[in-house]
């Protein structure tokens, strides 16, 4: 009786590899890793904007800073301005006691992408302020629509959400 070798043929291996490839492709389409990465960046954006808002409110309440009018400010955004917390960074204010925002945050955050599309911006009329962030994920876009501001495409925080 002839002895047969046990194993897989080349055709069987190609079929299995093809099926695995198709299933992996379907899984990637279902999981959508780009959306999850965008959601992670948006979660960071929301946290960063809230941190800056808290720092401004706390510093105002303690008389450490006062707001200044930023009309015509060319570098009141994270993609152009610096991360300094003394009033010279992308968040502008009068640094009354010389401490700036150091009591609450050590540096102004910048957007995770920080380009001409995704960046943080700051506006003030000297009495009120507004912080803005452009969100990229579909999951967090509802935050921009429900924040009470005047732009449904931008996440807005601050005392007056109609400054921009």
From TrEMBL:
Alphabetical list of Pfam families matching this protein: N_methyl (PF07963)
PROSITE patterns: PROKAR_NTER_METHYL
Name the UniProt record assigns to this protein: Type II secretion system protein GspG C-terminal domain-containing protein
Record keywords: Membrane, Transmembrane, Transmembrane helix
The organism of origin for this protein: candidate division WWE3 bacterium RBG_19FT_COMBO_34_6
Transmembrane segments: 7-31
Transmembrane as UniProt keyword: yes
Lineage, broadest ranks: Bacteria, Katanobacteria
SUPFAM superfamilies registered for this protein in UniProt: Pili subunits
